[in-house]
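Re: weekly structure request thread

Next one in the queue (383 aa):
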Amino acid sequence: MREAELIELRRAIHAHPERSGHEHRTHDTIAAFVRRFEPTEVLNHLGAVPGQGTGLAAIFDSGKPGKTVLVRSELDALPIQEINEFAHRSVHRGVMHACGHDGHMTTVAALAPRLQARPPELGRVILLFQPAEETGAGAADVLADERWPQLEPDAAIALHNLPGYPTGQIILRAGVFSCASVGMSVRLAGRTAHAAHPETGINPAHAIAELIDRLPELPAEYLEGRFGLISLTHVRAGDDHVFGTTPAEGVLNCTVRTDTDDDRAILTERAEALVREIAAEEGVVCQISWHDDFAAAVCDAPTVGVIRQCAHELGMDVTERPNPFRWSEDFGRFTIGRKGVLFGIGSGEEQPALHNPDYDYPDELIQRGADLFEAAVRRLLAD
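Done, posted below.
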């Protein structure tokens, strides 16, 4: 397939971004593209609720016994206003592909014509286009689909572009590649009072102030030197421009982040216990909810070895990541109980950072990523 056609597809997707769980046009665009290359089967609208999801799987089946290798990409964009001025900038105000998912899905879609031209000799290849990665809900929804048992892979692989690394460089790490994380939202309810007599009310700001001090200290207290981070992301008590009344309600949001799912469980348990303890001491009612739930992405060492060998054979520059990335990626769901690898591909040392309003996926990565995916898939099927 001509590179220009893939670039056109990527830019069309970039121009029409859709937020997590609403990737209907994107689903249809990818479905129309992959169907041209005659996959054995296409499963539409993957998700936890039958027929209502926006996930998509294209299956290329040899018809012969063998392994199943799944190659996954993401469909969703971010609630960010794009500031680029090029022709393919987002047409939707306040939504853009600032993380490169437009490039990731085009890279995976680029495998379809290759698999049509040279079908797998054994087993199956599944091209999975997954919704709602940014919220951590998409992988879980796909895994909850009643059709998932038809797709269960022997190995799952995915890539993520990484600004700050040389263009096209492959970044590998056996073991934990990216962190587990979850968002905690705490709502506190007290009782208002006249600001002249605050002692007659119950002000949740006092509990919030103590939580601001103590929540970030929990990793050092309970993880025995292992990595952990509790980041405060939002705080509010009362209303803006009110000076005569002390507040009756407040909100504190934070993100709990660790290297492993087990350590995340420890920290979330301790964080919840601390919130309830301080709320009781201050006499406020607390309500805790959890959001953006990400498992750690844990890379299988032998499969990493296959990616490494294929990259070297293709003449690609490879670097080994010494520590896990602190960010989270919901591909981690696919590495629980099965072999999986998430690897990075450098998108340029001068490239704007991910989630920045001037980000744009480098078109030259599409064919490079597809080359490595194809080589790895064929090697994994043969092995």
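The longest strand covers residues 180-189. Residues 180-293 form a domain with the Alpha-Beta Plaits fold (CATH 3.30.70.360).
Next request, please.
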